[in-house]
Known about the structure:
Elements: E1 12-16, H1 23-30, E2 35-38, H2 44-54, E3 58-62, H3 71-84, E4 88-93, H4 95-108, E5 112-116, E6 127-132, E7 135-140, E8 148-152, H5 161-178, H6 186-202, H7 211-232, H8 239-251, H9 255-270, H10 275-284, H11 290-301, H12 317-326, H13 337-349
Parallel strand pairs: 1-8, 2-3, 2-4, 4-5, 5-8
Antiparallel strand pairs: 6-7
Helix pairs in contact: 3-4, 5-6, 5-7, 5-9, 6-7, 8-9, 8-12, 9-11, 9-13, 10-11, 12-13
Amino acid sequence: MKDFIYTGHAQRVLFGNGTLARLDEELDALGAKRALLLCTPGQRDEARQVAEVLGPRCASVFAGATMHVPIEVAREARIAAARLGADCAVAFGGGSTIGLAKAIALESGLPVIAVPTTYSGSEMTGIYGLTEAGIKRTGTDARVRPRTVIYDVELTHSLPLDLSVASGMNAIAHAAESLYARDVNPIVTLMAEEGIRALGRALPFFGGADAVQAQAGRRDALYGAWLCGTVLGSVGMSLHHKLCHTLGGSFDLPHAQTHSIVLPHALAYNAEAAPEAMSRIASALGGLDAAQCVYDLARRAGATLALKDIGLRESDLDRACDLALRTPYPNPRRLEARAIRQLLQDAYDGARPAARA
């Protein structure tokens, strides 16, 4: 057993079917009276049911959340919260909306209640991201970690299949990288393996004809997302997340799909430097090679497999590699520009990673 340090983070988590109905009680528990409800433009109609639960305690609906949290949107939301006298923010949606709530909390200290509708895991972390002038910067601050998270399985049933799968693969990425983080510990390892296992079990059922299996898959996936998000909030990130932050923030690629596509290639890059982590990932997915297991799961579940299919131009690959290497995250394998450029090429092409010798 290696030496380790583990720091627990206090959050209240409600998990189940129909838990959204308890939102009003959770405001009471925080001592909050007026909530600014956040969502994306596309979820405005769905957010109405949340506003109905809040009743007169809903100060307003801010339906401006967007990918990668542009700093201009964050400023607009902060001004709205102050003008309306909101004393908490309720984030209804995925990583974009929860990220916006974190941007508000970063400056104002407003407590956040997260109601996730995807599997991003952002709700369980103190990690924030802001994009300014095409560069996405990330950081960690205890103020942005949601105080309460309400997981309602029923809210995930309407999530489109392609986004469901990509979001689930995004969650797996959080757990996979945690297993070779410099500050990994036994609790994180247990949660990461269980999270990967739950999502690996769930994702292939999303598009199936069996409604009972599909519903069970949704529950397993949300459970896995909670575990994977928790580990993301407990340890540091590595090359995979750096590449995805660069591709998303600088080239405006969709967050979940980018994570889903890049993950098997980042694992292949780090395979020789982190054999124990790779063994755990492969075992959780019922295979032998971690990178190939992740790629095959994504393909079986119907995920997009190539960066060229989500809007990246091949001419952008050199710049993406350069940007990622300017401010790198710690990584088990030394960062080699030529190898990372090849990693990006493989992800661009959607190639299946080669098996380790």
